[in-house]
Amino acid sequence: MPHVFVYGTLRRGEINDIERLARQRGLPAPVALGEASVAGRLVDFGDWPGLIEQAGPRVRGEVYLVEEALLAAMDEVEEYDPAGDSLFVRRRVEIQIGGQRLPCNYYPIQAHLVGLATPIDHDDWIAYRQTRDAGRASADPPPTPPAPRECRPARG
Questions:
Q1: CA of residue 88 relative to chain centroid, distance
Q2: Would you please indicate which residues are annotated as catalytic (active-site) residues?
């Protein structure tokens, strides 16, 4: 069974939570092995992050042991095209977790397709997203009250 490293929306509690994905597909639950990090830098596409492979900074995420069928479902979620015509690519990386090194699949993006994504100066998508969204909520103006209704005298 393959190992996977997830850093964005496939993490626990996020919109594409890997455990929920397995349940929805009727697949065995992934086995959570713990947290780890990989070299790279995050970018913000709005509802999801991308990870650009690069030496130096690290990106935090979670490691799971999964069935091949769940890895295929993750390919669908990430819209991964093995022919190479996709934003997300599936690659292998060696992860250090619990004192051992594990080969893991993960989904970085093709850097030349980053487009208008915003670079993130943070190593954790969830912490970044929560701070970003809280800032947006406090910056939103209060809702506009409804306009008063025009009252007309009743005709008798």
A1: 11
A2: 78
